[in-house]
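Structure, all two chains, one model.
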Amino acid sequence: MADMALRNQTLPVGSFGRRASGWFGVWCVVATEGSIFVYLLFTYFYLASQAVGNWPPGGAPSLQLAGPNTVILLLSSAALVWAERSGARRASLGRLLGGLAAAFVLGCIFVGIQLAEWSSRPFSLSSGTYGAIYFTMTGFHLAHVVVGLLMLALLFVWAALGYFSRERHAPLTIGAIYWHFVDAIWLVVFATLYLAPYFG
Amino acid sequence: MTSLEFDSADLVDETRSSDRGLRATWETRPGLFGILSSVDHKEIGLRYIVTAFIFLALGGVEALVMRVQLAHSNLKVLSPQAYDQLFTLHGFTMIFLYAGPILSGFSNYLWPLLLGSRDMAFPRLNALSYWIFLVSGVFLYTSFPLGVAPNAGWFNYVPYASKDFNPGPNIDFYLLGLILLGISTTVGAINFVVTLMRTRAPGMSINRLPILVWGTLTASVANLIAVPSVSLACFLLWMDRHFGTHFFAVGEGGQPMLWQHLFWMFGHPWVYAVVLPALGIVSDGLPTFCRRPLVGYTAVALATVTTMIFGFGVWLHHMFATGLPSLSLAFFSAASMIIAIPSAVSVFAWIATIWTGRPVLTTAFLFFASFIFLFTIGGVSGVMTAAVPFDWQLTDTYFIVAHLHYVLIGINVFAVVGGMYYWFPKMTGRLMDEGLGRWNFWTMFVGFNLGFFPMHISGLMGMPRRVYTYPAGLGWDTLNLITTVGAFLFAVGIGIFLVNVLISRHRGKPAGANPWDAPTLEWSVPSPPPPYNFAVIPIVASRHPLWEERLDETSNRSSLHHGYLLDRGRETLATTVLDAEPDLILKMPGDSCSPFLVALALGVTFAGLLGRWWWLVGLGCATAALAMIIWSWPERVLAQTARASDG
């Protein structure tokens, strides 16, 4: 272990890119929120393994809405990447705001389609273990999306107020990690609830 | 240089740092606003410790009432219903509201002092963690005067806890209270993890961390991963009870065993989370009184982490008697026995430290040394019950009650009381009374063993746990009477401790900065430490910055009185994760009421969920969201916004 040289140093001050404390913090949030979904998956597979009769009871669910919806959510992540890379890092407020707005709108469309999907289900929260875990797992995800949307809206306001610059936009970086996490988790939920039954 | 702001971190002599200037920047204002808004980690740590001790006292009184009921066969002091509520509340209080939070208290108080920093990484999150803990404790205890305290045991098995068999609000208090507490634990854990990665003094590399830091870090990482399991379980059961889902309910495909899995996947790591930091207290405190460094530092640090990793793979040993396949029982039995190895590594390291040291028999030393003895007894009975056939014989008997109390009191309470004797002078500037300390120690030690050792025997004789009374003629009367006498003696010991704290706080001998001639950073600052902790951020060159001259391990010397000044506002140094090289000047947030408001709003939300008053839930959520937006609004003074250099 090299020992510290005793010297005066010039160091960056405050929230600074990936060296902001919040950047470390959001990865902890990802770890703990990700764990919730791990336990939800455990619950799903546990109930599936103990179920009597077909699982899912009505056969594999249709991909008609969920498939395109997955693409929409991924596009929303892409918009946010664009907002950060070609907006914030190149000091273009227009592209930053445009990217954030696109991510937000795509996220809202996802919520709308997801609610439509919910209302078209032939089962309910209380109609059996499958219905219970289906609505709980997608509900947990939807709640995370809604929180993410509020966060995107807040980031939009802060960006419009000129809080972010080329080097100093830690809240954007931090918020983006959370939003990408929410999208990545959807892929896991989607693969479990929608794709896995086709291979069962 | 565009909008980036750089600043110089100047090395200066301590004498050039102005106490008045730093105090003006860091000190919490007096009065109610100061109380509600303080983010000083020392203030928060002390609040944690005091609150946790209040819960220890409440849980202790509950235990004593139960011991009166069990002192003799066929007593009718308590009704079966009242007994159910008492043992559930006792377990919940001790495990969740005392054992975890007391260690959070120590770590909150000590971490920045041990690490050479001016605060934790997220001071406001620190305040939030405490306030939610307090709100969840008050939330749970509201059930008691209403006569509807949780009554299905601290692990709340279904179907006892199902709506069909337990229709009152008792279980809802448990479920919602535990979710609320889980939020507190999680934000606290995030704070510890990020603090470790960011706010250490230069040179405080990971191979120089005090073992307490290793313990709390390990526990915090585990909490991040484990707490969601029980929070989810509680949420699902709450849905079962109020929204007609069938996760756990018998019939309609519900799986009562699922609760046990989710609970213990959390529960076992939690058991280690409430002992590993206590092991750290002993690993750091004991060497001071042995006048030598801890034997096997690296082995003990690795044992701490290893214990937790294994701790995630043993949850099934709480479920040996539930009819699981024997292959999985064999696996989990083996894993449970393997945990004995890292535990034994630590035990031998402590024994070797005493053996090769020159022990100074202070009260703190007596507590730490007896801790090793009690840990060994609790560990051996743990290995015994890890054997499946033995467990089948003894599960749900008083043998298990004896085991878990040897572990939780032996490893947690004895370490904590010893730790109080050790760090009380740092916290208050005054030493605790040693004469009273001897009475304190021997009463607790004799009372504890008198009370809990006979439980092993009553368990072997077949006495089941959680029975409110028992018939005469089974040969259990004498043992139970001894246990009751021991429990009261133990309580007297705790009472002497509290008296000693109250007396010594004002009348104890003045301690000075380093009354024990201890080796670590917290002893390099005055007692009690100033609000800003360190006048200059020290530079660390070894594991024992204050013992370098006499140990003379290398020619490197820590620089304790000549370091980074950082006095342009609330500043501390961020360093790199492994080597702790200077990386960034952190602007620390000042006192704020937002954490208190968020905690209060969450309390309102959960009260709404309890009564299913949805307007109240909406009000609580909206208030919490608003407070969090205000909280997270980028501030120029914290250099969170662009153009800081223009401002």
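Chain A is about 70% helix and 0% strand.
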